[in-house]
Each structure stands twice: as C-alpha cells, then as structure tokens.
Amino acid sequence: MVAATGWTEGITALEAGKFDHAHQLLSAAAEAVDALGGGVEHADEIRHTADEAALLVDLLSDTLESLLEEAGRTSPQSWATRFDNIYKGRAVIIDASITATPENSRWNRFELDYLVLAPGESARGDPRYARIDLSGFEAVTLARGKVGDRIVFGGRLDSFQYNTEAQEWLIRLSPQSGVLFTHQKALEALGWPSGVRNLEKEPRTD
C-alpha cells in the first residue's frame, strides 16, 4: 500500500510542484519497494521518481553563475572550504544538448553546449566561465546520448575547481547522484518551458 500510494499520490504531488509532499511519499514508497525485493508493480519507476523528488527538494538556492563569480574572487583554499561547507551535495538541474561524446572529445568525456558564465563576463575579452564535467556521471554515460541530443538531468555538486591545464573552471557532479528527468510537469512547476523532450531513461541498443 505504501508503494501504491507513492505511485499515485506521490507522482501527482510531484507534477503539481508539491515537492516536499512528493518526496515524503515517494521516498517511503522506494524504501517499501526495496524491502520487498523489487517485487512490486512499477518498482523501477517508483525508485526513479523518488530520486527526482529527492533532488527537487534539495536544489541549490543560488545559481551556478553566482557561485562562479564568488569562486573567481576567492583564494583557492578559502573557496574549497566554503564550497565543502555550504554547496557540496546540493542539487542542480541542467538542460543542455550534447556536443561531444567520449569517442570524439579532447577530454574523453561527454560535453554539453552549456557554459556557466559569471554575471557581466560576456563583455570581457577573456570571460570567466565553467564547464560541467560529466566524467563518470552515470545518468549521462549509461544513457549513451549522441551529439545533438537534448538532455535534462539533475545531480549533486561534488567539486567546483579551477583546472590549470584546461584554463577553465570545472564543475563535477557526484557520479551516482544523477537522474534523467522524466516528469515534465514537475519541471514546468519550476518554470521550465513545456514540451521538453529528454533522452530515454534506458540505455540505447543501436
């Protein structure tokens, strides 16, 4: 019954933007599914939706752009300490298109067309920017997206550091924290445009 309630009422709450309520119902449903060894109807969908809800209730309150501005004017050690104390583990949602895969990337990783640009940096000749480093990030690597595919996913911040070799800031996400968002109405409750088509959740076979 707990799993069934999560599947019905939990998803309804999620798509209505009632994220706290959805998280309570769906996290309990996912625990019930695990306790029953997965032998429950819609078990995988319940677990996946619970992961979506868990990220939505723990979203970063600041923007990545504001974090980049702060990081750029702070000493490396001070920033590392502040990041670990305040921002590490908080969730973010990214909506971008894949521009490179490990097979054709200079850095042997998936790359996106999304650059984090600090406020006012576009006017500079050498703007401060950060890339999302998807190395080992399972939500993207297991989905086997192709160049040009649009992807909407969430994950938890793991590090935010300057890479001297690449001469750019890199934002890394915890490898196993990723979720491909499948509930469009939940995104719309956050202000996302309607009609976002994400990668399929299951790995491709082509």
What would you say about this model in short?
This protein has helices at residues 2-15, 19-35, 43-56, 64-72, 76-87, 138-141, 184-189; strands at 91-100, 111-112, 115-117, 129-133, 150-163, 168-173, 179-180. With 206 residues, the chain is of the alpha+beta class.
Topology:
Elements: H1 2-15, H2 19-35, H3 43-56, H4 64-72, H5 76-87, E1 91-100, E2 111-112, E3 115-117, E4 129-133, H6 138-141, E5 150-163, E6 168-173, E7 179-180, H7 184-189
Parallel strand pairs: 4-6
Antiparallel strand pairs: 1-2, 1-5, 3-4, 5-6, 5-7
Element-by-element helix/strand order: HHHHHEEEEHEEEH
Residue-averaged pLDDT: 89
Head-to-tail CA distance between termini: 38 Å
Characterize the overall form: globular
Say how many strands there are.
7
Class from secondary-structure proportions: alpha+beta
Q: For the report, how would you describe the main beta sheet?
A: 7 strands, mixed
Q: How many whole angstroms does the radius of gyration measure? A: 18 Å
- Binned, the helix content reads 25-40%
Helix count from the secondary structure assignment: 7
Poorly predicted regions are 200-206
